[in-house]
Amino acid sequence: MSSLVEVNDLTKYFPVQKSSLEAMLSRKREFVRAVDGISFTIKREEIFGLVGESGSGKTTTGRLLLRLVEPTSGEIRFGGDNIGELNSESLRRFRRRAQMIFQDPTAALNPRMRIGPAIKHGLDIHQIGSHPERKQETLRMFERVGLTPPEAFYDKYPHQLSGGQRQRVVIGRAMILEPEFAVADEPVAMVDVSIRAQILDLMLSLKKEFGLTYAFITHDLATANYFCDSIAIMYLGRIVEVGPREDVFKSPRHPYTVALMSSIPVPDPKHKLQRLIPRGEIPSPINPPSGCRFHPRCPYAQAVCSEREPQLEEIGPNHDVACFFPRM
Amino acid sequence: MPPLLDVQELTVEYFTLKGQVKAVTGVNFSLERGATLGLVGESACGKSTLGFSILRLVPPPGRIVAGKIDLEGVNLLNVPLEAMRRIRGSQVSMIFQDPMTSLNPLMRIRDHFVELFQTHDPSIKREEAVSRTIKLLDSLGIGGDRIDDYPHQFSGGMRQRVMIGLALALEPKLVIADEPTTSLDVIVEAQVLELLKQLREKHRLTLILITHNIGIVAEMADLVAVMYAGQIAEIGPTEDMYGDPLHPYTKGLLESAPNVLHPEHSMRPIPGTPPDLVSPPSGCKFHPRCPKVFEPCPLREPLPIHQGSRLVACHLYDQVDH
Q: Which residue of B has its CA nearest to A52?
């Protein structure tokens, strides 16, 4: 498989908002280091999971991948092109090829826009086909995402739909331009368990049909394990471990990954929990800890961990870990 | 001795402009001292409303229209309002879902606790209330030195610990926890669950744990009640329920959940969507989504039937000659 997305040493710092008084009193500007030097590759037609807790930088990474925010430094190549250097014409083409599926379908849809025109909007903007063709195409997409009969749904408003149906609209809107790549940011976090699997299955069948590549952002490891081919575990703006799904889940090597895995509730009352819960909570990304960012919470930390920052190193086939003392 | 909690034929409705929403219909269950009941189901199945009814805190336009809720033999629905207020917190308390909106942002942590202690016992001295608060915060893993902080100075996990502390401060007999870890990250969730287990042990708590996460229920609960469309579809001991689910909805719910150890046996969708509770389906409310639907399902509502250790409301187990 060739690579579709290549990310090199990407960073994104957001300036911390201060009151004007605070700004006068201190000259030092502070930054939230949301994404702090990450590199990875997404292969064509794979589902690449970006997994982490809140504040790990996974959502910012997803937005950077689509150039919805500009990076502080680093580059993102999409099909070989540096997306930071696209001119307005080629950026427009890129926007057709890469789409976003948002987390909260209620917030992502305009409450005053009927869902038919909402899905059709992309075709209008990119002026694809004649008006009747666009409508036909939209009705086909309704069918495709399981909102049937399409005619009955076309003129509805978002508030007339259930949460699961709204998420189908959001997916249909992303798919109408037949993109090659979609970033899905927690697409099932807001829907019920029984519906969650329906939505993921829909995303899988669309992937097969269009030959899609997904970046799948989630905090839910169990869902990631079900859905993804590769997984990158993020902690405080860094990737601590990345590799094929089975390897990361069956033999996690970074102590943080191990801790995450052991924290997941297992729906089996006979399962014996062996929890390795790290101390405390994720620190502030404004002043992240020195060296390895996980060291203050890590049960295996040694002196070197606070002094130098470990880099991702290969530990198995395509399986990289950023840790001086990886677990076995 | 009667069970600690005995709920019979509880029915709660919301009187909305669109019509009466039958949030909870004819729910029966009882709970022995020291047991943990997991109340599971999807959104709008009535699990939170059921939890709120036990405290008589169903928000308007909701109203308890029928049934009884006996706490140690006393029907809470007949208790005068003033007495009910004293019961809340001291005998039955609740850990709310969202600690950000449940704590007063303008009150220091100290004052949350002092107010609670003094409301229930006006004779208690302020210093006494403060020293009890410090001790409590220490036992919650927060640290008594944070007593003067405001809620916004705490992380989500720490705020949830404060909520747990407030719920347990007066040593109630029954604690209702409504999605206590839903807004938390997985590691913090694990920390809070460990704390809850530890406190449950220490204070021999009876706990009702309301959640959509069947992983948490498997870990925490002795008994599970699966709710669907305002009714209990199946109730029984946790191991039996997970090992051999009887109701097709229980089975569907268990199989739809992600299982990190066995991803191949998880996330099977249940077709369709949960029903509209203003005009629910006829007969068994699950029948339009049920893979095992047969003749009686749309016609008659199934009554709960004893099936071994369990009570299940499904026509598959009707006592008729097949």
A: B185
B180 class by beta-carbon count within 10 Å (0-12 exposed, 13-18 middle, 19+ buried): buried
From 3.40.50.300, 1.10.10.60, 3.30.1490.190, 1.10.260.40, which CATH number describes the B5-76+174-191+205-317 domain?
A: 3.40.50.300
Ranges of each domain in chain B: 5-76+174-191+205-317, 92-171
Which value does ipTM take for this structure?
0.86
Query: Which of helix, strand or coil describes residue A207?
Result: helix
State how many domains chain A has: 1
The CB density around residue A2, as the number of other CB atoms within 10 Å, is: 9
Q: Does B183 touch chain A (CB under 8 A)?
A: no
Domain containing A100: what range? Answer: 3-108+180-321
With cut-offs at 50, 70 and 90, classify the pLDDT of residue A85.
Answer: very high
Q: What is the pTM of this model?
A: 0.89
Q: What is the pLDDT of residue A1?
A: 63
A162 CB neighbours in chain B (<8 A) are 273
Q: Check whether A17 has a pLDDT greater than 80.
A: no
Out of A53, A195, A264, name the one closest to residue B260 (CB): A264
